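Sequence design from tokenized structure. All designs in this work follow the same two-part layout: the structure record, then the generated sequence. An example of the structure record is given first.
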């Protein structure tokens, strides 16, 4: 069911002896809110005014170098179209973080974002870190959702919140970096494997460490 796949990593190698931590992150939200734009801006410094709609999900990879560890984010960009909604929860499996994206110029996408948050809280790991991204901040003059309203909602639900712009790169690296730092600081453990097997039953009694020493 996975569609396009992309890979990227940072330009500087990890220092010898640094810990390498891998985390799975899922991007969710309605179609056309800019999920793919955000990821491509982050991993490739690219932006286009429009992209072909994601089919199923697309995979990206980015490496973040922190002070004493290297964090690899394995990102699944899920489709926002209703016809794919039934399979989206399958990508939550093993995810340590999620970014729920809405369009600040479209009120309906914000209300739908709340539904995605509830679904993540219900279907995903109890410890999943959820970030809320109000995208398209470059056209804030057309906004339908006040920033304070979104911030209040995020505070009530213990969500990391930032307004972003894939077009101008506003807060794009910052939101991913904040997630990487929080995941590294909490030392969450999770699946080391990269990818999703949609036909595999949920593992029981099997946990792998989130970090391994670099040889």
């Amino acid at each position: 069911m996975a569609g396009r796949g992309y890979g990227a990593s940072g330009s500087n190698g990890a220092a010898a002896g640094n810990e390498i931590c891998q985390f799975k992150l899922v991007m969710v939200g309605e179609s056309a809110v800019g999920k793919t734009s955000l990821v491509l801006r982050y991993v490739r410094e690219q932006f286009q005014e429009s992209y072909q709609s994601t089919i199923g999900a697309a995979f990206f990879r980015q490496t973040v170098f922190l002070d004493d560890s290297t964090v690899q984010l394995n990102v699944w960009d899920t489709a926002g179209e209703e016809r794919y909604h039934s399979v989206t929860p399958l990508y939550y499996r093993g995810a340590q973080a999620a970014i729920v994206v809405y369009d600040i110029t479209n009120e309906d996408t914000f209300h739908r974002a709340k539904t995605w948050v509830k679904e993540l809280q219900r279907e995903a790991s109890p410890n999943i870190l959820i970030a809320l991204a109000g995208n398209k901040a470059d056209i804030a003059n057309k906004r339908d959702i006040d920033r304070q309203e979104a911030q209040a909602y995020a505070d009530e639900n213990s969500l990391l919140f930032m307004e972003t712009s894939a077009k101008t790169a506003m807060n794009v690296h910052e939101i991913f970096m904040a997630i990487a730092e929080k995941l590294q600081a909490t030392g969450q453990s999770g699946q080391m494997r990269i990818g999703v097997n949609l036909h595999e039953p949920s593992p029981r009694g099997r946990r792998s460490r989130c970090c391994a020493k670099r040889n």
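The helical segments are 35-44, 107-123, 147-156, 172-186. We note this feature because it recurs in several other targets discussed in the main text.
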